[in-house]
Amino acid sequence: MKQSTAERIEFLRREIDRHDRLYYVEARPVIGDRDYDLLYGELAELEKLHPEFHDPASPTQRVSGEPVAAFAQVVHDPPMQSLDKTHTKAELADFAAMVGRELPGEHPSFCVEPKVDGVSISLRYEKRRLVCAATRGNGSVGDDVTGNVRTVKSVPLVLDGSAPETLEVRGEIYMTREGFVRLNEREEDAGREPFANPRNAAAGSLKQLDPKEAAARPLDIVVYNSGGAGCDGFSSHGEMIAKFREWGFPVPPWSRRCGSPEEIFAAVDELEGLRHSFRFEIDGAVVKVDERRFHQLLGATAHGPRWARAYKYAPERAETVVEGITVQVGRTGVLTPVAELHPVELAGSVISRATLHNADQIARQDIRIGDSVWIVKAGDVIPAVESVIVEKRRGNERKFEMPAFCPVCGGPARRGEGEAAVRCVNPACPAQLQRRVEHFASRNALDIRSLGGTVIEELVSRRLISDPLDLFSVRTVDLYALEVSGHRFGKNALTVSRSLEKAKALPLHRWLFALGIANVGVSVAKDIADAHERMSDLADSPVLKEVLANDERKGRERRILAIKVEAAKATLAFFAGEYGRRFMARMAQLGIDPVSEKRPAAAAQGPLAGAGCVITGTLSRPRGEYAKMIELAGGVMQSAVSSRTRYLIAGANVGAAKTEKARKLGTEVIDEARLLELLG
Ligand code: AMP
Ligand code: ZN
Asked: How deeply is 61 buried, as exposed, middle or buried, from its count of CB atoms within 10 A (0-12, 13-18, 19+)?
């Protein structure tokens, strides 16, 4: 029997939820992007044709919320509490002793978990659907940030059928370390103030009034506490967490069950050793009594539960001296002051420089040349000055002033309207050119091997290049003859020219990233490339224009809404501008027009153009081999038969039920011989 539309929609929603969970929560996707997009596209289309089946919990609706003027208030019952903190093992031992005293004759055990440094959140589900997500606020009343939290892909919108109908859980929204670094690069390229750490970045993202803005931020969640409803009936915390996991929530990736204070000490020490290995930053451990009946007995104070304690790790910081402040010129001309530090070791590496971001930042922190400072690693990676040790001032420290001219080309430096950054506005600035070429040749861009900073410096100062594309016209003999720090460049020239040759065939997203357009980082470039066929389509792209027009394009939300308005604007401006037009003209001369790796299926050529194919059963050659042949012939591999499948290739041992079902969906069932025929 053919599925009804309602059944099909329901099937697709659950299937997409399942794949989202495999991808975002369990990090083990079982289908490729293309298959996912087919499912998603089919669902979006059906929903458009049948608005009567609209459902805010549909995976297509993650970014459907409208901007709000202000957040509604949500009352927390029970209140969202903080945690009492300990800083020493002695204090932890006191905690265990207190628990022992309060529970005479009992043998409580403890769970040790990472203390995730993010923003606490409460999630409420009714009929197993997410209905409300709220921040802690003052503990009793928080902000309703449901629209923003829905955009976090690892937050289940619909729970597994084994979950209670009504459920409230609590956890932490965080920004991954990697996401934080990327976000800050983007902020700085765009001349905005970067975030001090992942926690601030996560908090700022949740407070966006427009869910589309929040959707563009790399947020994630971990759930570790009961919020009341639906969480009774577990005998232990550990058991509850295991259930949360089953119901579809990400839970702490590490925990230890301990019976004695010694075991707790060992666990918090072990965790401290792992502190930099998580995707999130942690600022300590949380020790919780495992048995939930003891939670009742122990109760809570006004501040936090008496059955749990935070154990804070000492912040990792180091003291050093700011020996000077220099100014760096970035790819987009942004002048960045950098602290030149007396080298010092911190969390496993030697640090001698730290970006100070901009003049405002220096003024705010009142950092002077000669100051003793504490340095930390923001997001565990980027060295930053935490604070000045004012007591160590001797009076001979000097204030820093941002130069009015570019330190490299001497051109005027201007502060853009509404920007924290000052930029060198000379388009021919050699420092900018140097950075642009470095970026152009970098690993995620065109990956030109052997072309390091000093080589580029030589090329720029000898005027062999005045634009990144000039690399393609530099003669190999000229490269060969270059002197780089006293050495003949020689055979390295061949590596460079081989890389350049390879670069010509690289896919669109690599080229787009290589252009160094503000707001277009690796992943944005990928998103934009996915929605286009070739570079020459970008200048007049209807997709980008639509992003600007703020159209929702729900059908491809997962890919296209990731394109921020600013990125779309900058990309269009790049190709419409004089430089962009000249760039494309030269690309045409060079015969390069990079193609998207993921062209829309309809554009595929070949005997199977656009035909969805599923392989089942045993074939005489490996499936992967056939899959490759099918894709080369323009076919689209799918993992399961759907109404969009044209051919089911049935090998040996395929049950009649399966082929029958396929036929009912309008799929042609063919054998291996017929496939070979079709492939020609
Ligand atoms: P603080 O914000 O420093 O007062 O610490 C208390 C907060 O730690 C709680 O409100 C939670 O948001 C957060 N937290 C992070 N990880 C955990 C965890 N594993 N268990 C309980 N709370 C946690
Ligand atoms: Zn300059």
From this structure: middle
- The CATH architecture assigned to 508-590 reads Orthogonal Bundle (1.10)
Nearest CA to 116 out of 42, 225, 230 is that of 225
CATH for the 75-312 domain, from 3.20.20.70, 3.40.50.10860, 3.30.470.30, 3.40.50.150: 3.30.470.30
* CA 114 to centroid of ligand 1, rounded, Å: 9
Which structure tokens are listed for 181? 């670094």
Which residues lie with the beta carbon below 6 Å from any ligand 1 atom? 82-83, 113, 115-116, 120, 172, 224-225, 252, 286, 310
Higher pLDDT, 374 or 418: 374
Amino acid identity at 149: V
592-638 confidence digits (pLDDT tens) = 989 998 755 444 567 887 788 888 888 888 777 887 788 777 777 77
Q: Any idea which architecture 601-679 has in CATH?
A: 3-Layer(aba) Sandwich (3.40)
Question: Residue 332 pLDDT more than 90?
Answer: no
Decide if domain 318-397 falls under CATH 2.40.50.140: yes
Of 73, 70, 66, 72, the C-alpha closest to 151 is 66
Burial class of residue 88, CB neighbours in 10 A (0-12, 13-18, 19+)? exposed
Q: Report the pLDDT averaged over residues 335-351.
A: 89
| CA of 329, nearest ligand number | 2
* Best of 117, 121, 172 for a ligand 1 pocket test (most atoms within 8 Å of beta carbon): 172
Domain 427-503 adopts which CATH fold? DNA polymerase; domain 1 (1.10.150)
**pLDDT tens for each residue of 516-535:** 998 888 878 888 898 888 89
